[in-house]
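INTERNAL TRANSFER SHEET
From: sequence group
To: structure group
Subject: GntR family transcriptional regulator

Please process the attached sequence and return the structure record in the designated field. Keep the field labels unchanged so the import script can parse them.
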Amino acid sequence: MRAANEETQLERIACILADCIISGEISPGLHLRQNHIASEFGTSHVPVCEAFRELQTRGPQDR
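Return from structure group:
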């Protein structure tokens, strides 16, 4: 069972990463490491992994 704050972290991380990708802060082809992003957000790798999956399902059309 997932805690409510993890869902919030997942949504927050996915939103911030999407904004960084769209704005060009994150360059195309840049290898993103879950452990580095988790450290930046002060969370475990689980919400980061879920955020990556969320962004993959959104695709480029859901900007």
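Handover comment: The chain has one domain: 4-62. The chain has a mean pLDDT of 87.
Transfer complete.
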